[in-house]
Amino acid sequence: MPSIYLYNTLSRNIQEFKSIKKGKISLYTCGPTVYNYAHIGNLRTYIFEDILKRTLIYNSYAVKHIMNITDVGHLTSDADVGEDKMEKGSRREGKTAWEIAEFYTKAFFRDLTELNILAADEYPRATDHIKEQIDVIKKLEKKGFTYHTTDGIYFDSGKLLDYGKLARLKPEELRGGARIELGAKKHITDFALWKFSPALTTRHMEWKSPWGVGFPGWHIECSAMSVKYLGQPFDIHCGGIDHIPVHHTNEIAQSEAAFEKPLATYWLHGEFLVVNGGDKMAKSGENFLTLQTLKDKGISPLAYRYFCLQTHYRKPLTFSWAALQAAQNGLNHFYNAAATLSQTKTNHPVTPSLVRRGALASSPFQGEAGKGLPSGELPKAQASVAETFLVHLNSDLDTPAALALVWQALRERSITLAELLKFDEVLGLQIQNHLEKPTEHIPEEIQKIIAERDQARASKDWARSDELRKQLEAMEYEVKDTKEGTKVTKN
Ligand code: AMP
Ligand code: ZN
Fold first, then answer.
1. Residue located nearest, by CA, to atom 7 of ligand 1
2. Which of 36, 51, 242 to mutate to test the pocket of ligand 1 (most atoms within 8 A of CB)?
3. How far apart are alpha carbons 461 and 24 in whole angstroms?
4. Whole-number Å distance between alpha carbons of 241 and 184
5. Which domains, and CATH codes, for the chain?
6. How many CA atoms lie within 13 A of 395 on its CB side?
7. Exposure pattern of 208-240 as b/e (b: 16+ CB <10 Å)?
């Protein structure tokens, strides 16, 4: 198998990827909190994860992919205070939290389909795995990692020597900060494993547990479900960069404390979609744009996908309507160029300028603090388009370089349709569905025959109509009868 290089947040380096089991990859990506529609920032993260998964498959790996659905326990503040987002959604819409979860989970799946994101093997829901979560908490309790407070069971981060290693947190500095409100917690980095239902309010979602009626903390679902479906350790864990300091840090803490093994070997994080010169798009913010908002403005979901592929996943992507419109136009041109490609197989080498522009100049390895690619892995001057395409993807998913390469190959006509469709297994732009030939110029003499044939058909002169069809076919035109009359395409 060719080498794949990925930036591992855990080591802060680009590493050559080695799977735990030969030829197989276990992948866990944190899924949505289903109390509202996904915004297009969330969707950027799922598109990046889809490119990762498609690249692994393109490299002939069998990928087992699990994405959880958070339908309970994610509070409005990551510091274990505030309201459960599901209950908040239920008050907002006057429905039960169960109805909210059902509605927005379905909406999420529709978004994935429209963005041509490959389906995960399973989408386990937190509410279907309460027993599994309680079991992990019991394990932690037995090993002395938990303590009770008036509002729940907490993980004692002070008991773990390497707490915060993913985010490179310095807990002793954080813990020294008396200005931070601790509440009932012993340390600011401790987090809820189980929360008790508040005394005076009724929750739609609550369960009995050995500690009292309540609901699981947010992080425990991913630990319980990843070990159930993938085992521990598994190969790759992904999410957006906001997951590094809290959610993933706490998943690592509780999973590694409970099972005494690493949780995952590679950690990949996607940068944010930003608005207004740098603000993160957030579900609670004003700039909450959904896929539907884009469609209402004439931007197709696949144009949004194309827009995301133009920027490397570890760089912030700035939203603007003008940039999205440009992406829509770019994708339309891309489809038109694809439609003119011949089916004949060629094996053109890439021109040296292409290699320089694509693989070297725009490589994410340039200027990285971490280790770069070994120079032997860079495409050779005489590499074929297909070889260079693969090197770009395997260079930490360099989709901007891969797209630039494909564009230049389209311009130079050094690529066949078959090759392009193969590349689309990773790009996921559904090129096959957009291969209607661009409008052809039909010469005047042909147009005259078409007009005469339409007249013959209108007056039911089938013999003349057949004669004229034969004439057109002899001139290498394929003839189709449609509701609008005769349509021809040049063979
Ligand atoms: P949530 O539904 O809030 O649990 O988030 C779902 C995913 O979207 C997580 O992986 C987040 O890290 C990611 N995410 C949240 N905001 C953004 C953003 N503005 N840009 C990209 N990804 C985001
Ligand atoms: Zn998670």
1. 42
2. 242
3. 65
4. 28
5. 5-275 (3.40.50.620), 321-369+376-490 (no CATH)
6. 31
7. ebebeebbbbbbbbbbbbbbbbbebbbbbbbbb
What 3-state DSSP class applies to 64? strand
Q: Are 231 and 202 in contact (CB under 8 A)?
A: no
Prediction pTM value: 0.84
The number of the ligand nearest the C-alpha atom of 238 reads 1
Give the start-end residues of each E strand in 287-430: 317-318
Q: Is the CB of 240 under 6 A from ligand 1?
A: yes
Looking at the predicted structure, is the pLDDT value of residue 370 above 60?
no
Sequence-ordered strand ranges (E) for 100-183: 146-148, 152-155
Is the CB–ligand 1 distance for residue 30 below 6 Å?
A: yes
Measured in whole angstroms, the distance separating CA 414 from the mean position of its chain's CA atoms is 30
Residue 319 Cα to ligand 1 middle (Å) = 15
Using DSSP, state whether 77 is helix, strand or coil. coil
pLDDT digits (tens, 9 = 90+) for 29-81: 999 999 999 999 999 999 999 999 999 999 999 999 999 999 987 888 777 77
Q: Is the pLDDT of residue 338 over 80?
A: yes
């147009």: which residue's tokens? 447
For 134-148, give the secondary structure using H, E and C: HHHHHHHHHCCCEEE
77-130 tens-digit pLDDT:
777 777 788 888 888 888 888 898 999 999 999 999 999 999 999 999 999 999
Q: What is the pLDDT of residue 289?
A: 94
- Alpha carbon of residue 340 to chain centroid: 30
**Which residues partner with 238 through β-bridges?**
29, 268
Instruction: Quickly state the pLDDT bin for 357 (edges 50, 70, 90).
Output: very low
Q: 355-371 burial string, b = 16+ CB within 10 Å, else e?
A: beebbeebbbbeebeee
Q: Which two tokens stand for residue 147?
A: 């303590």
CA 393 to ligand 1 centroid distance, Å: 23
Residue type, position 75, single letter: L
- What contacts 341, CB < 8 A, 6 or more positions away? 410, 413, 415, 416, 417, 420
Residue nearest to atom 12 of ligand 1 (CA): 240
Helices (H) and strands (E) in the chain, counts: 16, 15
